[in-house]
Design goal:
This protein is of the alpha/beta class and 223 residues long. It has a single domain, classed as Glucose Oxidase, domain 1, CATH 3.50.30.40. 35% of the residues lie in helices and 24% in strands. The chain contains seven helices and twelve strands. Strands 1, 2, 3, 4, 6, 8, 11 and 12 form an eight-stranded mixed β-sheet that branches. A two-stranded parallel ribbon has the order 5-7. The chain is elongated and about 65 Å long.
C-alpha cells in the first residue's frame, strides 16, 4: 500500500485501518498508553464514523464569555484548519455545554478537516449525523457555551480521555476507540499496520474456508 501524500495516507487509514490493530502494534512497539481510555466513554455519533489526521487541539474552560465575540479562539482555529487535520477538544473541568456543533462541523468539513474528537459533549447531533462528519464525544447536550464556557487556548498539549495529546500527532478514531500515535513512532506504526491489515485479510479468508483457528494461529501468529 503506497501513499501518494499525507492526505492519501489518512484516506487509506480511514478505509483500511482499525483501532484494534493500531493499538496492538503500538503495544508491540512498547507504547502501551496510546488508546484513549474506554472509561472516558467517548463514542462516535454514528457507528460508521472513522477519521484519521493530525491533531489540532482546543482547550475549553468555564468562562463568562459575553455576547460580542464568545467564540474568538475557536473561530481562529477553525479558520486555520488545514486538510488532513482533526480537531481535538477537551476542557479544564467537566462541562455540561455542547462544545461542538453543526456549524462548527460545517466549517471544519469545508476546510478539509477529517473529524472532531470531543472529551465532552456535542450538540446538533442529528444535523452532524446527516452531514456524515465524524464526531466522537461523551454524549450530546443542547446547552450553549455562551456565558458558560469558551476555548481558552489552542494548539497546546492537552489531556484527552486520560491520554496526553500533542498538536500534530496523528490520531485515529473508529467505533472501537481512539488511538494517539507518538510522533517518533508514526512511520513504523503505520507501515506495520499496513502489513497487519494484509495479514489479517489472509487470515479472514482461510477462516472463512473452514480452517481450524488453532492451525491458523500457528501459521500467521495473528488472531
Amino acid at each position: 500500500m503506497a501513499f501518494k501524500n499525507e492526505i492519501d495516507m489518512f484516506l487509506s487509514m480511514e478505509k483500511y485501518f482499525y483501532a484494534g490493530a493500531l493499538s496492538d502494534i503500538l503495544d508491540e512497539m512498547g507504547y502501551r498508553k496510546c488508546a484513549v481510555s474506554p472509561k472516558a466513554m467517548i463514542r462516535p455519533l454514528f457507528p460508521q464514523a472513522v477519521c484519521a489526521g493530525r491533531a489540532r487541539t482546543l482547550l475549553n474552560a468555564p468562562a463568562r464569555t459575553g455576547r460580542e465575540n464568545p467564540y474568538g479562539l475557536a473561530l481562529e482555529l477553525m479558520d486555520s484548519l488545514k486538510p488532513g487535520e482533526v480537531a481535538v477538544a477537551t476542557s479544564t473541568k467537566p462541562l455540561e455545554t455542547g462544545i461542538m456543533g453543526e456549524l462548527s462541523a460545517t466549517a471544519m468539513k469545508s476546510r478539509g478537516g477529517r473529524g472532531c474528537l470531543v472529551d465532552g459533549y456535542t450538540r446538533d447531533a442529528r444535523k452532524i449525523i446527516r452531514m456524515k462528519f465524524p464526531v466522537f464525544a461523551k454524549g450530546v447536550s443542547p446547552i450553549d457555551t455562551t456565558d458558560r464556557a469558551a476555548v481558552v487556548d489552542y494548539d497546546c498539549p492537552v489531556v484527552f480521555g486520560g491520554r496526553r495529546i500533542i498538536p500534530g500527532q496523528i490520531v485515529f478514531a473508529d467505533l472501537d476507540g481512539i488511538i494517539v500515535i507518538p510522533r517518533e513512532a508514526e512511520k513504523e506504526a503505520i507501515q506495520r499496520a499496513v502489513e497487519r491489515v494484509r495479514k489479517e485479510t489472509q487470515v479472514r479468508k482461510v477462516l472463512r474456508e473452514g480452517r481450524k483457528a488453532g492451525d491458523v494461529w500457528k501459521k500467521y501468529r495473528v488472531f
